[in-house]
Amino acid sequence: MLSELIGLRLETAPRRSLRSRLLGALEAAILSTLARLRLRRDARILADDELGPQERSVVAELRRVLAPSGLEVALADGAGALRRSSRQLVLPRHAPLVAACLRLADRDPQWLYPVTLALLDGVGEPPAELRQRWVRGTMAR
């Protein structure tokens, strides 16, 4: 009825063929694999003595709060995507999210909980004590 009032005909998009869907899925898988391989080749994990003072202090704090979960934190060269395995979280130092998180946590350690939450990206959670510290700190302001 609405389409008649405004003189617009609504139609569903034509369904893609099985061949087209399979080729699209194959292309996406190949591109994803190539991106991961490229990231692994390009993103060199940095030693602690290669980090700036700001990076070193925030990475040390992230390591401290995530150690109980068995997750190691490492900063890598480059600006690619964050990488996470069951044992390691690799943060590319020039990625916009990582750079912003490092600056924020260095400026105000109270922000370590939201920074950790952002860097974990929905896979796992920061420790409960870190969340409690964040809540107490925000309530006091």
Count every beta strand, where a strand is a DSSP E run of 2 or more residues: 3
- Could you give the distance between the termini? 54 Å
Large-scale geometry? extended
Low-confidence stretches: none
Helix content: 55-70%
If strands are numbered along the chain, what order do they take across the biggest sheet?
1-3-2
* Main pleated sheet: 3 strands, mixed
Mean pLDDT across all residues, rounded?
A: 83
Number of helices: 6
Strand content: 5-15%
Overall SS class: mainly alpha
List the helices and strands in order.
Answer: HHHEEEHHH
Rg value:
22 Å
Key features?
3-stranded mixed beta sheet, 6 helices, mainly alpha, 141 residues
Task: Please specify the SSE layout and strand pairing.
Blueprint: H1 2-6, H2 18-42, H3 53-66, E1 72-76, E2 83-84, E3 88-92, H4 96-107, H5 112-120, H6 128-140
Parallel strand pairs: 1-3
Antiparallel strand pairs: 2-3
Helix pairs in contact: 3-4, 4-5
